[in-house]
UniProtKB/TrEMBL annotation:
This is Cytochrome b562. The keyword RNA-binding does not apply. InterPro entries: Cyt_b562 (IPR009155). It comes from Marinomonas algarum. Residues 1-23 form the signal peptide. The keyword Signal applies. GO terms for cellular component: periplasmic space. Keywords: Signal.
Length: 150
């Protein structure tokens, strides 16, 4: 089974190198400094890079093993508040609504990773490509809604 490894690797690398998946916080001021959410997003970025290497080398089972760590970081991220929501100084119902949307995107990404894991374990090249594309879409949603420039 030959996957177009160059294209697949480029897709993974572009997703993993584009400032992590969601509300990745920058380091320019104290609100944007080192936070738990930033740490989780950096963990995700590092795991995605490693997963990319695994897939490039044809080791789908090793790539699939990384998904547990990715999901754990996403689950921990659920309880954090993205910088964008802090910067907008949202309170009450507005904050609750945006926080629910943030969690919805996190949960959607977890589902994508679970599907990617199944595709990796079954050697489903088309599925791997599909779920990597979905991963990129989730990243765009998260960044579009919750990433702020500090």
């Amino acid at each position: 089974m030959f996957i177009k490894k160059g294209l697949l690797a480029a897709t993974i690398l572009s997703v993993s190198c584009s400032t992590a998946l969601f509300a990745h916080e920058h380091h320019q001021d104290e609100m944007c400094g080192e936070t738990k959410l930033h740490g989780y997003m950096m963990d995700i970025k590092n795991e995605l890079r490693a997963m990319s290497s695994d897939i490039k080398s044809g080791d789908n089972s090793a790539a699939a093993e990384r998904i547990d760590s990715l999901i754990a970081s996403l689950e921990q991220s659920r309880n954090e508040t993205p910088y964008q929501l802090k910067a907008e100084k949202l309170k009450g119902e507005a904050l609750a609504t945006q926080q629910k949307e943030y969690v919805r995107i996190i949960d959607g990404t977890i589902d994508v990773f679970k599907n990617l894991e199944q595709a990796l374990l079954s050697g489903d090249s088309a599925g791997i490509k599909k779920w990597l594309g979905e991963m990129g879409s989730q990243r765009q949603q998260g960044h579009g809604a919750f990433k702020a420039n500090c």
